[in-house]
Specification:
about 375 residues; mainly beta; 19-stranded antiparallel beta sheet; two-stranded antiparallel sheet; 21 strands
């Protein structure tokens, strides 16, 4: 048995028994922040996890965590949300010894359970996946995901809980030999829930490495979602109710994402990176309903038009030159275009052409740093 203790304190323990490694880690944090009316509030967050992180075949881990209602560290960095607690558990089996058909294979089971401090169940997720690397170094994975019906304390934007229907999804991913000069990847996902929502999403990617100092990758994703029950607006209508209420509708959405990335290495100290993305998304609502309780709703004659059609194009070009050891020069050009309308039934070709006709914002930045050595 070996015990490893980091120099910066007892933040984790790592125990090694022969071919197996066990890990125990966690944290406890606090915050003291200012909210509305300069009111100071304090919060806390913590996590503990134990698992078998290294071994021949079986690996596992389990963890518990919490964040109090008033925990807030967004002045220091992005934080997902406060007011929840729960745990996760994972079990994996892997075989890295090559066989007659596959070189390596892995099975994984995962569970996630989470509540808020009002005892509303927020997450009840079960996932099972299997992956294999074939003898020709191609890789295939299949994933099945089930989310039981739970509550959502954010969907109504402050008007209470919403009971989300249970849903399941399956994903298949296929990738060619990652060592080759040309690599292809295909991802297919299908999702459905108990309220009739169904979604198809297809992803295609290709990476080309013509030389050791150049790489170009292209990705395309198309998704088509139908009949998803989604929040539209919170409405005040005295003829219906003395209190504001949430309006939901059946939402159809379609989206396409085109992404290009390129890297060119001139020398060890000089590189050029290019990134561009075109994103198109549009949605249509119908069958409007008024939320009566987290589980029940009634038809509602909604007069608004929440349909949308959004387009965005972003381009980043970064030239990096380390002109002296530790001293770097960056020359950056960014271009951003964005626009929207309410025409859900437009043709994709028109949306594509319209995105490049939008007014663009261009920014050129130069950053130079110099390292003074003692």
């Amino acid at each position: 048995m070996k015990l490893f203790i980091p120099k910066n304190g007892l933040s984790f323990w790592n125990l090694k028994f022969k071919e197996s490694t066990y890990g125990l880690d966690g944290f406890l944090a606090g915050s003291h922040a200012t909210e509305a009316a300069q009111r100071r509030v304090s919060g806390a967050a913590g996590r503990v996890r134990f698992g078998k992180d290294g071994g021949k075949h079986w690996l596992y881990n389990a963890g518990l965590d919490f964040t109090s209602r008033a925990y807030n560290i967004n002045d220091l960095g992005f934080f997902r949300r406060p007011n929840d607690y729960g745990g996760t558990a994972e079990l994996r089996y892997r075989e890295n010894r090559p066989g007659k058909i596959v070189r390596a294979r892995e099975l994984r089971g995962f569970h996630h359970h989470r509540w808020n401090f009002d005892e509303a169940l927020l997450i009840n997720n079960h996932n099972f996946s299997a992956g294999a690397e074939w003898r020709n170094y191609w890789e295939t994975s299949v994933s099945f995901d089930y989310n039981a019906s739970t509550y959502d304390d954010r969907e109504t934007r402050g008007l209470g809980l919403y009971r989300a229907p249970g849903r399941w999804s399956t994903t298949i991913d296929w990738e060619t030999d990652g060592r080759a000069p040309v690599i292809f990847e295909l991802t297919q996902n299908y999702t459905r829930d108990a309220a009739g929502w169904r979604q198809w999403q297809t992803g295609l990617a290709a990476t080309v490495r013509p030389t050791t100092f150049a790489e170009l990758s292209a990705e395309f994703t198309h998704s088509d979602s139908r009949d998803r029950e989604a929040w539209v607006e919170n409405v005040s209508d005295a003829l219906i109710s003395p209190n504001p209420f949430s309006v939901f509708g059946g939402r159809d959405t379609r989206a396409q994402d085109f992404t290009l990335r390129g890297n060119l290495t001139f020398t060890r100290d000089m590189t050029l990176q290019v990134y561009s993305q075109l994103f198109l998304a549009k949605g249509h609502y119908d069958r409007f309903r008024r939320l009566l309780s987290p589980e029940n709703s009634a038809p509602y004659d909604y007069a608004g038009d929440p349909d949308f059609n959004e387009s965005a194009f972003n381009l980043n070009v970064v030239w990096r030159w380390e002109y002296l050891p530790g001293s770097v020069l960056y020359l950056v050009w960014t271009q951003a275009c964005a626009g929207e309308n309410r025409d859900y039934f437009s043709r994709w070709r028109d949306d594509f052409n319209g995105a490049f006709a939008l007014p663009a914002q261009n920014v050129v930045l130069l950053k130079v740093s110099y390292w003074w050595s003692r």
